[in-house]
């Protein structure tokens, strides 16, 4: 252990900041792993997990222990944004397969010490693919909420620099953060940095970034952070990169049953009469979760301002048709 780590441990102990104390212990574990002492690193991680399990078991009934604030500092402030989501997987409408796979990831993370005792590691790298508005970004929030971890959203546009080598340096900062501070990290529009090598539009800097990401994917994740990469264009990803993810989860547009469930949940107390749903089922076809949510929000706002207790069938149908029209115009403009 370095003097810097020892001083930080003592300081956090004196100030009574137990989470900072445990975070520094994980940094020491990461250092041990890098120096070729994996057994010592695993012992430290198991002790930290045991301490956190005891914290969780001792929280007040009906309440939750507060999550310590973890804010990006220094150069990371421009690269990463952090929030503490309260949503969970139960608040999402997902297919049975996606729900089952995400629940399995949560369990692996919660019981990661048990997995390590048997020589296994929990899922830590996930690729989420599918059309816009199908729940990829919300999944990151829900996983963070389930695990009571901060959600760090990486601003990929801030990674790129016109100065040679600076982008790789920023990536190194990000990778160090992931290794040292446990959280859920979302890299949205991942195809921006994971594009195929040899692409006609490829440039040297993009290749260097991709090679850095490939190397990072091979590094041990010492804090068991969850790294989620999301993309609308999986076909653009380099195959070598796609193979390195523990899980690849595909999201699709909701069918009529799922679309109705999304609307009912979003309408809340402004629910529509059951017999009215059949009249608007065809208007749900082809709309994403995000588009359905926005249509529901539009009519709920009007109902609130008008002092109504329910939304009208005509208003909801008009909002859905508006979304269908906008989607059709976009398709014609893009040729998709």
UniProtKB/TrEMBL annotation:
CDD domains: RecA-like_protease. SMART domains: AAA (SM00382). Residues 49-71 are annotated as: Disordered. GO terms for biological process: protein import into chloroplast stroma; proteolysis. Residues 122-255 form the AAA+ ATPase domain. InterPro entries: AAA+_ATPase, ATPase_AAA_core, P-loop_NTPase. Gene3D superfamilies: P-loop containing nucleotide triphosphate hydrolases. Keywords: Plasmid. The keyword Ion transport does not apply. GO terms for molecular function: ATP binding; ATP hydrolysis activity; ATP-dependent peptidase activity. PANTHER family: ATP-DEPENDENT ZINC METALLOPROTEASE FTSH 4, MITOCHONDRIAL, METALLOPROTEASE M41 FTSH. This is AAA ATPase central domain protein. The lineage of its organism: Bacteria, Pseudomonadati, Pseudomonadota, Alphaproteobacteria, Hyphomicrobiales.
């Amino acid at each position: 252990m370095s003097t810097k780590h020892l001083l930080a441990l003592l300081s956090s102990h004196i100030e009574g900041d137990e989470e900072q104390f445990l975070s520094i212990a994980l940094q020491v574990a990461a250092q041990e792993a890098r120096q070729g002492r994996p057994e010592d690193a695993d012992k430290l991680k198991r002790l930290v997990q045991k301490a956190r399990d005891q914290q969780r078991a001792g929280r007040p009934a009906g309440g939750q222990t507060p999550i310590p604030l973890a804010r990006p500092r220094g150069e990371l402030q421009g690269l990463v944004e952090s929030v503490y989501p309260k949503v969970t997987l139960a608040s999402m409408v997902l297919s049975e397969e996606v729900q089952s796979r995400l629940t399995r990831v949560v369990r692996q993370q919660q019981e990661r010490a048990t997995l390590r005792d048997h020589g296994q590691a929990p899922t830590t790298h996930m690729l989420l693919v599918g059309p816009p508005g199908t729940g990829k970004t919300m999944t990151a929030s829900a996983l963070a909420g389930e695990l009571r971890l901060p959600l760090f959203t990486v601003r990929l546009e801030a990674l790129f620099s016109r100065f040679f080598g600076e982008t790789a340096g920023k990536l190194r900062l990000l990778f160090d953060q992931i290794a040292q501070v446990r959280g859920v990290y979302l890299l949205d529009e991942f195809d921006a940095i994971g594009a195929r090598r040899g692409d006609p539009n490829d440039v040297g800097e993009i290749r260097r970034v991709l090679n850095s990401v490939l190397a990072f994917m091979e590094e041990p994740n010492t804090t068991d952070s969850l790294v989620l990469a999301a993309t609308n264009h999986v076909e653009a990803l380099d195959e070598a990169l796609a193979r390195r993810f523990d899980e690849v989860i595909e999201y699709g547009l909701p069918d009529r049953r799922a679309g109705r469930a999304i609307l009912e949940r979003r309408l809340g107390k402004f629910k529509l009469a059951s017999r009215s749903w059949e009249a608007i089922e065809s208007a749900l076809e082809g709309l994403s979760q995000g588009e359905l949510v926005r249509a529901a929000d539009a009519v709920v706002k009007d109902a609130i301002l008008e002092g109504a207790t329910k939304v009208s069938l005509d208003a909801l149908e008009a909002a859905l048709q508006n979304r269908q029209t906008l989607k059709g115009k976009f398709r014609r403009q893009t040729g998709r």
